[in-house]
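Run log, item B.
One chain of 113 residues. Sequence copied directly from the ordering sheet:
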Amino acid sequence: MRPGEAFGTIAALALAGCGGAQMPFDRAAWAAERGNYDGESRRGAMVLQLGGAGIVTGASRKAVHTLLGNPDSTGSAADIYYLGRSATGPSFEIYRIDYDAADKVQSAQIRRG
């Protein structure tokens, strides 16, 4: 499996909850959705494109922030980007990126809260 494929697979499985439509990654559109916790968001339609844009295992946290901007929530070992309200229920979705001790991407996945 090539780097990024696992993230694409996880994202594809969860895409039904993000409205199902895909759109190319657009940095400005992604940034415009910052702080959109539970409204409709264009980010969900871009999630499948993030692996190809550079969000892959081993990418630096700095590279992630350069691409995606500041996260909506952060901790010492993870960043969270809000994807908005789920299309399939009352919950919301996030894109969580976990980092190892060297601040390199360890995993990235969509989660429903």
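Observations after the first pass:
- The radius of gyration is 13 Å.
- The longest helix spans residues 5-14.
Flagged for discussion on Thursday.
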